[in-house]
Write a sequence for this structure.
């Protein structure tokens, strides 16, 4: 199905809409006033460190946990007041997949398909499709209790697909898997997007980089960044320059250059100063800038373009800010 067709199916509404959602566990604010939308067919990475509030948010979206305040709609249905409608439209892979250890894989999926109301006539081919898609054919007659973590996770994923729900909410679908299994699972999820809207949580940046079209970074219950991967790629790069000479004069000179919008200096040692500068447009100004600096008689030791990466953004919004907060707390 194309994104346009999915839009028709959802009558032009976002697949997921979250508005000022908050969840407290006693004094702990696990989710703190978050809002976002996911459009039909999008594959969005919900990225954040452990304890950020990802699972709590997903449990609310899947109707398993009531919010303390705020709203959420899936395909236009309210998670609080229309929970049965919501449940029919989502496939949810919880953080730890509860499986019946005494059941065989195929038997379990048949049982789950019945529970989910998959019509009898289509049950067998549908299970066959899910088994194929999630690469669990070779274990379909094994007892669930004897499966490795990787296979158990894949059975969980197959389970989410049984009723062919338009929306998939996958809570750390790759956790505990080895690198090969991680790649296979990510490939499967990528294949599923487009046909399904996917919200996938993870604490691993490279997973988002590999398959997601958009990232929502959450930390301490709050959304710190919500941007498409394309927009991140198109962000202005930073130039890193190290110049030998009088630091203050060079700083002043760089600030006077018309194409530079920000100049940050930091001493490197001796008469060397490092500068991080940003330019006004997306052109590469290295050569003209270098010749102007050298024209003043200053030597350049380093000049490079640093593209804005998800890692840099994550470091900035999550790691650096929490360091700053710690510094403030210990100073106080
Ligand atoms: N049932 C619970 N009772 C109390 N605190 C909880 C409960 N579940 C989660 N928390 C707390 O809420 C915060 C967010 O947790 P969680 O949503 O699991 O984050 P994530 O999935 O991003 O790791 C954490 O501080 C966690 O300790
Ligand atoms: Mg979690």
């Amino acid at each position: 199905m194309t994104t346009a067709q999915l839009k028709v199916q959802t009558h032009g509404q976002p697949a997921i809409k979250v508005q000022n959602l908050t969840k407290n566990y006693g004094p702990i604010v696990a989710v703190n006033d978050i809002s976002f939308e996911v459009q039909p067919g999008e594959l969005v990475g919900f990225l954040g460190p452990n304890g950020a509030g990802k699972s709590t948010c997903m449990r609310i979206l899947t109707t398993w946990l009531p919010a303390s305040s705020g709203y959420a709609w899936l395909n236009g249905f309210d998670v609080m007041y229309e929970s049965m409608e919501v449940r029919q439209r989502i496939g949810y892979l919880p953080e730890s997949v509860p499986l019946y250890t005494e059941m065989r894989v195929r038997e379990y999926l048949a049982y789950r398909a019945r529970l989910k109301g998959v019509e009898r006539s289509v049950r067998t081919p549908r299970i066959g499709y899910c088994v194929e898609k999630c690469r669990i054919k070779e274990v379909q007659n094994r007892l669930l209790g004897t499966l490795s973590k990787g296979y158990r996770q894949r059975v969980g994923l197959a389970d989410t697909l049984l009723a062919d729900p338009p929306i998939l909410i996958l809570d750390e679908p790759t956790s505990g898997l080895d690198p090969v299994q991680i790649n296979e699972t990510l490939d499967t999820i990528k294949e599923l997007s487009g046909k399904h809207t996917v919200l996938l949580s993870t604490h691993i940046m490279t997973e988002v980089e590999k398959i997601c079209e958009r990232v929502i970074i959450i930390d301490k219950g709050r959304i710190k960044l919500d941007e498409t991967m394309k927009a991140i790629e198109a962000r202005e790069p930073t130039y890193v320059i190290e110049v030998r000479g009088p630091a203050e004069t060079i700083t002043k000179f760089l600030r006077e250059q018309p194409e530079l919008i920000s100049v940050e200096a930091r001493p490197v040692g001796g008469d060397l100063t490092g500068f991080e500068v940003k330019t006004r447009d997306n052109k590469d100004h290295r050569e003209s800038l270098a010749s102007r600096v050298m024209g003043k008689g200053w030597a350049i030791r380093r000049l490079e373009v640093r593209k804005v990466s998800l890692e840099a953004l994550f470091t900035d919004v999550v790691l650096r800010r929490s360091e700053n907060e710690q510094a403030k707390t210990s100073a106080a």
Q: What stands out?
A: Residues 25, 28, 30, 48, 50-56 surround adenosine-5'-diphosphate (ligand 1) (CB under 6 Å). Residues 238-306 form a domain with the Alpha-Beta Plaits fold (CATH 3.30.70). The two ends are 56 Å apart (CA to CA). The first strand starts at residue 16 and ends at 25.
